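Progress against Task 2.4 (sequence-to-structure conversion) is shown through the following example record, which the project officer requested during the mid-term review.
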Amino acid sequence: MTHDGVPVRDASWTGNSPTRRFALRSGLGAAVGLTLPELLQQRSRAKATGRSSADTALILVWLPGGHSHLETYDPKPLAPSDYRGPYGPIETAVPGMRLCELLPHHARVADRFCLLRSVVHTGFCHQQGTHQLLTGFPERVLRPQPRYPDFLSVTHRLRYDRRADVPNYVGIPPINYSGAAYLGNAYAPFPVHGDPASESFAVPNIGSVDEASAARMKRRVRLREQLDRLKKTADHLAGDGALDEFEQQAISLLTGTAASRAFDISREPDAVRDRYGRNRWGQQMLLARRLVEAGVDLVTVQLGGALCGGVGNWDDHAVNANCFEAIRYRLQFMDRAVAGLVEDLFDRGLDRRVLVVVTGEFGRTPKIRYQKSTGRRIGSAPAGTMQPGRDHWPRATSMLFAGGGIEPGQVIGRTDVRGEDVTQRRVGRGDFLATLYRHLGVDFESVSFEDHSGRPVPLMHSPGKPIPELCAAGDPRTA
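Structure tokens generated for the chain above:
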């Protein structure tokens, strides 16, 4: 089921133990019809004009459907009544920085993050908004997948390390409408669809191979190595690194302890799990911290499903639910989870290496719209009752940035008294992407990839420069 093009089903995965037919096919490759060694080899053969060795990581917290900036990071208490919602602003740990009253945990740790209140683009639907923010291309067509690869897939390709014993890019779960486009599915994220708060949570095929299966796989690798030594004509299989190297890496991911330990959230003390909230979103955030701490470069956390209320996402049209009731319901979970992640990263000394960004594809219309309720969802008034909602609004999007070595406590940009338009420090999609690329060590100005036609395509489809306030303090590369 979908609403307004956004999936509302809360999907989950369950995995089975490997059988005798299990060779080296895993969740990393099965989705694209590849064995894991084939997928690893495909990634290794990728050629690009640049590669980053920066020891940095990113956690992108995605609010699918688009969050209301007025009810989160840019409250407007002086707006007229047909714009102003029922919730007022509260003071925070940073003098002058005010947040919606529904974010008390954010307010407590505000001296550890920055707010960017002035992002603007032209994508008025979910697909367009997602594609514009994550690829930089000014997409105006409704496409289920982007025409160009998103910045996460690009970074994954440039920074892929075949020696790693954990996946380089993990989606908890992957972001709706994002993708690797012509780079190929080899650069899609390793997907995690289950609920980390569940006692039965497990990631399929990671650390799930029994000793007998592992021994069989290793015997097959040794046999192939012997055949290779006897058959010089098999050199074409080796490519630029020998297929057995990829088989060995596949075995490492499937049978090694590093990946299984990183995904094993039950290892966390109860006090830490409680800090994030004992619910799906809180434990997704905790899992993200575990992964970057274990060496994963890129993690996306999509906060969707039942905890949203409404239709399972942040798409607060009046027909879906009373937006203010749905927002109040979901922010109790999001508030604790985001604050827990920010606090934990700083406490563990990860605040320079890891950058956290919290955003959706756009903001919501400042002017409140009323429609009849269906009466079917959390926060809905009785059927037929007129109830409030906010629609899509790419003219003003607010984002949270934490970590990455940036100076915390800043508020960057401003919108007018109604929250309709940016009045100070307008930031475009190109500036947003340039900032993230800068943190990740990607030379976005010179790197390009060939598309299906062989034409070189630059990474940046819109002009942009890193936002100085959101680059690491003391970074000599900052313009």
